[in-house]
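Subject: Sanity check before I submit

Could someone independently write out the structure tokens for this chain? I want to compare against mine line by line before I put it in a report. The sequence has 127 residues.
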Amino acid sequence: MKIVVTSLFVDDQDKALRFYTEKLGFVKKHDVPTGEYRWITLVSPDEQNGTELLLEPNVHPAAKEYQSKITSEGIPATMFGVEDIDKEYNRLLENGVKFTMEPTKMGDVTIAVFDDTCGNLIQIIQQ
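---
Independent answer below. Compare away.
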């Protein structure tokens, strides 16, 4: 068994698509109309056949509440791995990404957290 798709609640699919492709550098894999919303998935440019990230509209009240509560508590919605966190941190800063935590060493890993502008905090990690 393997992870094929994982979801991330977003408050605006178009805004999220722009942020995750233009600012972060992910690649759009699917963009399929599903009524009022779309099935939009992204992949890493380095693993285009790898796990897909679904930009899931947070239209259900439970989704909105979950997203709001974890964000207000400073809890990242997901984590992305990077090879060189300092290099990635500086690249994202240059792209206008706002960080809530700069790269911080925690044991054997270094993490940083940014705001995705779509209702989530996202953590990057260098192991």
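---
OP: Matches mine. For the report I'm noting this point. Residues 14 and 55 are 9 Å apart (CA to CA).
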